[in-house]
Design goal:
With 163 residues, the protein is mostly beta strands. Helix content is 8%, strand content 33%.
């Protein structure tokens, strides 16, 4: 009788892990960012980003997958709040991701991406930061307005992964 009770307890514990993980490993994109994202460029034209489980596409061209080599290989880096940012800066205001963590120079990357709590037309937006205080905003539907913005000053690095 004791053996049977011990077995049922250990089986019950083995299945107690949460089922909804946002970030799994370096070759899988975070679930919260998956889908199609748009950014208005003017004159009825949009930048289109498609993020799938194992691929990152920009305007129809697959930039990163686990099968590609060098800095084109999908290698997701998960940056946490307070973690050191690029260039030795201290910061990062919140969780964000780099999709090609194997890049060797800044010219080889698109920047850091995160799902913002900000909503446009009732839906959360994806933001990215690359360089020189410029933050880009992507929406899930085509909206004829560019929401990109610039944030100068010493505290701009703390806005990465937030707002």
């Amino acid at each position: 009788m004791t053996l049977l009770t011990g077995l049922s307890v250990s089986v019950g514990l083995s299945f107690s892990a949460p089922a909804s993980a946002k970030y799994v490993n370096h070759s899988t994109t975070p679930t919260e960012l998956r889908g199609t994202w748009y950014q208005y460029q003017g004159h009825h034209q949009w930048t289109k980003i498609v993020i799938k489980k194992h691929a990152f596409k920009l305007n129809g061209k697959t930039l990163y997958t686990p099968k590609k080599k060098s800095w084109h290989k999908l290698y997701v880096l998960h940056h946490k709040k307070g973690q050191e940012a690029s260039g030795g800066l201290k910061g990062y205001g919140g969780t964000n991701y780099t999709f090609n963590g194997k890049f060797k120079g800044d010219y080889q990357q698109l920047g850091n991406f995160w799902l913002s709590p900000r909503k446009i037309k009732g839906r959360r937006v994806m933001k990215s930061y690359y360089n020189m205080w410029n933050f880009e905003v992507y929406t899930r539907q085509k909206i004829q307005h560019n929401y990109n913005y610039t944030s100068k000053g010493k505290q701009y690095i703390n806005k990465i992964g937030r707002s």
